Amino acid sequence: MFQSAFRYFIFLIILLHVQPAAAQPGPADNKPWLKDYQEHRQYGNVFVVKKITVKCEKYETWLVDQQGKKLTPAFKDIGDFADGLAEFVAMEGDPNAGQHGFIDMSGKVIVPPVYVSTDRFRNGKTWVIYRAGKQFGLSYIDTKGNTIYKMPIQYFKNDFLISKAEVRHLCGKDTREDVLWGKGRDFYILNFNFSPFIEKEIKSSKYIYHFSYQGKFGIIDKNMILKVPVALDDIDPTYEFSGQGMERVKYGDKFGYLNVFTGDMVTPFEYTDTRKPTNGLFWVKKNNRWGCIDKSGKTRIAFLYDEATGFTKEDRSAVAINGKFGHIDKSGKIRTPLKYDFASYYNNGRSMVRIDDKYGYIDTTGKFIVEPIYDEALPFDKPTTTVERTWLRYKLDLKGNEEFNGFSYKLNAVFILIGLLIFIRINSFFFDRFRKARAAKAAKKGTRV
C-alpha cells in the first residue's frame, strides 16, 4: 500500500514521543537517600537517580537498588526500561563517551555503548544509528544486541552524511535524542516513528508499505522495520515498470530494484533506463549499453547492446550493436546475425527486418518468409499485417500471401494534393471570370451615363 506521510515537526515528535508508563516517581519519605538526588524514577525494585550540578550541562545518572546501592557507574543519562532493558549514555571520560547502549535491571551492560542514537525496545527490537564511513547508518537489533536487519545505507551515498548531521537531545535527557538533517525548512531523519493509526495500517499490509515525506519515499515492512530510508525519488507500487517480484525504484538519476515481498534492495542504483521484465529477465541500461539481469539481480546477458526489446514467447529479443540488428535468445546466444539495418521483435513467429531501405520478414531460424521488397511495413502483431510497395497497400498473411488493400498513404496524399491543386485552379478560374464580368458590367454602366 501507499500512504502519504503526515506533516509534522520532526524534532518535537521524535524527542517528545510518549515513554512507557513503568516509571514510578513516588514520594521519597521512606527512602531518605533519594534526597541526595534531584530526579528519580522507580522500576520495580530499582531506581534511576540523577544528580544535577548544572542544569542541562552537568549531571550524572545511576541505577540503584532499594537501599540506594549503586548498581552501575555514573552514566550521562539512563532512559526508561522496556522489555527489561534501558538505554544509557556513557559519561565523559569514558572511551565511548556520548555513545548509547543498554543495561538490564541488575545494571549489567547488555548492549555496549557504541551507537550514536537509539530508542527504547518495542516487541523485542529497536533501531540504532551508528557511524558508517562518511554516513550514519541504521540497523535493528534484538534484546541481546544481535543485528536483525542492517539498512544498505551505502546505496544512498548523497544522503545521511555525518558532516551535515545534527545530533540533538532534550535538556538533561541525553536518551531523548535524534540525528537530524536539515533541508530548507524541513528536517529529515533515518528513523521514523508512526502514529498508532498508520502503524496499524502498516501491519495490516500484505507485504511492504510505501510512504512519503516531503516528496521523498521510504519502504517499511509489516514488522515495522524500515527497509529503505526516506530518500527515494520515485517508486513503482503499481508495477508499471516492474514485475517478477521486483519493484523499480529511483534514487537521484539512477534506477535500482527491491524485493516487493521483503523490501530488501536487490540491486544498487546504477541503471539509467529499464524495460518492463519479460520471461523472467529485466533489460537494464548501464554505461550506455543494455544488458539483462534476473530477479536476483545477477547479470544474465552482458551489457553489450545499443538497443534491445523485451523477450517474446519465441524466446527472442531484437538487439543492435553499431546500428546493425539481429536477435538473441534468453541465454544471450545470437540466433539471427546482427546484419540488418533494422529488426523488430518477434510476434506470431515473424520478425520484420530492413535491408537497403526495403522490408521483409524472417522466421525464428532467420529464413526469409517474405523477401525484402516492401517500401513500408509493420510487424505481425496480428496474424496479418499491412505492407506497401510501388504506391500500393496490401494485407499480408504469415505465409507471405498478399491481398490488395488500397493505395499507399503516400499515394493518397498525392491524390489529395492533386485534388487540392485542381480545386484551387478551378476556383481561381471562376473567380477570374466573375471579376471580369463584374468589371465589364461596371464599364457598360459608366458609358450610359
TrEMBL record:
The chain crosses the membrane at residues 411-431. Residues 1-23 form the signal peptide. Keywords: Membrane, Signal, Transmembrane, Transmembrane helix. This is WG repeat-containing protein. It comes from Dyadobacter luticola. The lineage of its organism: Bacteria, Pseudomonadati, Bacteroidota, Cytophagia, Cytophagales.
